[in-house]
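Worked Example 4.2. Consider the chain below.
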Amino acid sequence: MTIAGGIMGALFHRAQTGEATTVDVSLLGTGIWSMGAAYGLSLLHDVPWTPPPKEERANPLYANYRTKDGRWLAFGCLQAGRYWAPMCDVIGRPELATDPRYADHVSLLARTSEVMELLREAFAERTLAQWRERLVGFVGQWTVVQDTLETAVDPQTLANGYIQDCQTAAGAPFRLVAAPVQYDGVPAVPRRAPGFNEHGDEILADLGLGEDAVIDLKIRGVVA
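Applying the procedure from the previous section yields the following structure tokens:
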């Protein structure tokens, strides 16, 4: 939906100006945007938002595993049979790759609880930093489960401008998540919410009311 909305915005812009733009949308930007309220509160108070990852999955290689130092690794290997041998090398148990109990995708899914317990024990033996090193050459899909504060300073987040600096009406700084659609590589900078009746007079003027009429409405309590 984000991509579709971005393309519609670009087409409207072209229709109005004759200029074409480049639409940029990413899963990371959209994911952060969907948690915008959580990020805003987390960044304001400098407290990470850390919901507990779900552990149980039908596929043991599509699950989250806790490290020795209490961090989490998330794996998204939909083809368990394809990535089982490389996973066995990563955890230092290459003999499991030829174990007939885990011969293929069907066998792994049939023994999900057993395999997950095996992987839980393995990942609990090393810290996140150690696993980062061991997983460098892993061909499957994986990532570190980051909290809101970590994601806010992730190299990809910073490079793409997914978190933007803002100011309140009084000039106090805070940060907000930018809209997940970018045009021509430029992030959309979010703006603060207006103060109470901040633009009231301007809106009334745009409606054609003169200064005397606005004052009269205020005296009678019709508008603030």
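The chain has three domains: 2-49+149-183, 64-146, 194-224. The beta strands are 23-25, 64-66, 72-75, 142-144, 163-167, 173-177, 181-183. Compare this with Example 4.1 before moving on.
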